[in-house]
Amino acid sequence: MGHDDGLARRFLHVCLNIRDFDRSRRFYGDALGLRLAMQTDAARSEDAAVLGIAGPTSSRASFMYDWRGPRSSSALELVEWMDPPTEGRPYDDVSIPGLHAFAVSVPSLKGMSDRIVAAGGTVLRERGASVFATNSADAILLRDPDGANVEVVEDDCPTSTVLGIRATCADLDSSIAFYETIGFKIVNNPRVGEFIWGTGKAVTLGLPEDDGGFALCLTQPDGSARQGDSYKSAYHSGFTRMALRVDDAEETRSQMVSKGLALRGPFPVSLGGTAVQDLRISGVDDPDGTLVEFVDRPKEFFRPPPEHPADIGPR
């Protein structure tokens, strides 16, 4: 596939709706080692059409990165909604289709449980297998202060490193076909087993420019998925959407429509209070209703990751 094929090229960020930025920053910064590199202002915005919200809204987005920095790694986007306010609780049942967990690796799990609890989190399981692990090391499953799940994997990394996002699917084959249609490739074939989140089938996928730096893990737990229980609003607490880089929003729309996908947009979006302006973003729902955003972002903006941890700004 060529540079201008209209498909997704790189994973930009996953969105986590939160209630209190300071609390979440302490958790993902102090306990998990991510750093704040960019934050929008909280002015009222007309830019929520891609989220399916009519009328003005007010929210603040904070982008947290690992040691590779904002031009080399994918981000965790923390969104604190004021109007309408963040509602509900994140998924507490792995059988519900949708985005369930963020994954990071650390050089050592020693003392991690204590740091999690000290930062307001909860340890759900101290030992278990993770598809994000590159070795047989155990992982920890935890909840952040709002109840969102995180897998922490011990791995050979210089410091905390973003690994990917895990989703539950009602029909794994349908979800794999959808994500392959928009540009993902299978990294590790589906396997059945016992994981830290439970038993079932899991597969990992990636985008061409991520080169193993970020993985989308699709799972289908044993038993029936609870259809109809997925989040109904863009401002529901928890992981609600993902953003992917494309070369041209109009070409992406054309290509996706030709593949039978109904895109919304592209819409003009400005990240007020940051240097990132005049974006064009379109969106489509995956088979389980999770919003996937396609963001115009030139490839020239990105760079290879540094060889060693870099100071990317205040924590």
3D structure, described in words:
With 315 residues, this protein is mostly beta strands. Helix content is 12%, strand content 38%. It is built from four helices and 17 strands. The strands form two sheets. Strands 1, 2, 3, 4, 5, 14, 15, 16 and 17 form a nine-stranded mixed beta sheet that branches. It has an eight-stranded mixed beta sheet with strand order 7-8-9-6-10-13-12-11, covered by helices on one side. It is globular.
Number of helices: 4
Mean pLDDT: 88
**What structural class is derived from the secondary structure elements?**
mainly beta
The Cα radius of gyration reads: 18 Å
Count of individual beta strands: 17
Flag low-confidence runs: 311-315
State the helicity in percent bands: 10-25%
What is the CA–CA distance across the termini?
A: 39 Å
- The dominant shape is globular
Strand content: 35-45%
Order of SSEs: EHEEEEEHEEEEHEEEEHEEE
Give the biggest sheet: 9 strands, mixed
